[in-house]
Amino acid sequence: MHVLEVRNLVKTFNKLRAVDDVSFAVPEGSVFGLIGRNGAGKTTTIRMMMNIYLPDSGEVLLQGAKVGQDFKDKVGYLPEERGLYKKMRVIETLLFFAELKGKTGKAIEKKALEYLERFQLADRKNSKVEDLSKGNQQKIQFITTILHDPEYIILDEPFTGLDPINTNLLKEIILELKSQGKVIIFSTHLMDFAERMCDHITMIDKGKVILNGSMSEIKSNYAARNVSINYKGDLSFLKTSPIVESIVEYGNSSSIKVKEPEHVQQLLKALVDNNIIVTKFAADEISLQEIFVQLAGNDNDNANTAEVKHV
Asked: Which of 215, 232, 267 is the last residue of a domain?
């Protein structure tokens, strides 16, 4: 069941069409990723979902009805441009934002302190927000987003400024919220995060939807004839190989698309024959990063020469 639908959203700034006929549906109880490069139109789309921007055309529906104030009351929103009051103390900030959503009292204060403890910020509860590092301010902003127990959580680039440990903690909490039945929508340009966390994605590039669907179906569709390898050696001989359709290189790993399924074994033999040391050879495997490069990268295919892209 789709709880939230975006239908044919269009938004133009001067002559720039930032969002161009964007449509997608968010299933119930899912983690949904709105992904794409910086400037693709993700934030503008989210701001229209939140009624911060009015669309030129199109609509956003919550359980079949056009979104209004009732949606804002049910949502926790982490904007791309953070909005904390720098002179306020940390605990005051958390309680203030909770009160804006109608939550007050000892129970919400206890919950705020529990989140501060979890993010290792309990000793900073009386510090001014401006005295915290950017990463710690980001953690406070995240707590304000979820403290009032919203049904819908919209996170615009939530991992900005976080170190790997706190990134993992944030992911852990997001998945906990999913297990509680929350609908979570987050935008990111970081494909590996989206791949690990999302059940469904919509990929936007230059304001248009270029990919839409469940993560499992998308990966299954794009993985056919794709081989992911880790290796040592020189793959330049593959550029003119008659069995290779394209190559995306990542340094000591590559994604290679062969022209026919039976070419997978021929590719392995060619690597061995050319003294390539292969430490990983995975057929019918592809990452979301590789799919994005295929769809949004420069397309300069030549009929007789394998396309090589460096990422």
From this structure: 215
Shared domain for 240 and 271, answered yes or no, is: yes
What strands, in cross-sheet order, belong to the sheet with 57-62?
16-27, 2-13, 57-62, 65-66
Same domain, 161 and 256: no
For residue range 196-233, list pLDDT tens digits in order.
899 999 999 999 999 999 999 999 888 989 999 999 99
Q: What is the pLDDT of residues 154-187, one digit of tens each?
A: 999 998 878 889 899 999 999 999 999 999 999 9
pTM for this structure? 0.83
- Amino acid identity for residue 187 in this structure: S
At residue 103, what is the residue type?
K
For residue 275, count other CB atoms closer than 10 A to its CB.
9
Say whether both 126 and 235 belong to one domain. no
Residues 68, 183 within the same domain: yes
Number of domains the chain contains: 2
Q: What are phi and psi of 111, to 5 degrees?
A: -65, -40
Q: Same structural domain for residues 95 and 147?
A: yes
Handedness of CA 196, 202, 203, 204 (dihedral sign): negative
For residue 252, what are the domain limits? 224-310
Rounded CA separation 79/117 (Å): 24
Contacts with 76 (C-beta within 8 Å, 6 or more apart), sequence order: 145, 146, 148, 150, 152, 153, 154
Measured CA distances, 264 to 56, 154, 250, 272, 284 (Å): 48, 41, 20, 13, 9
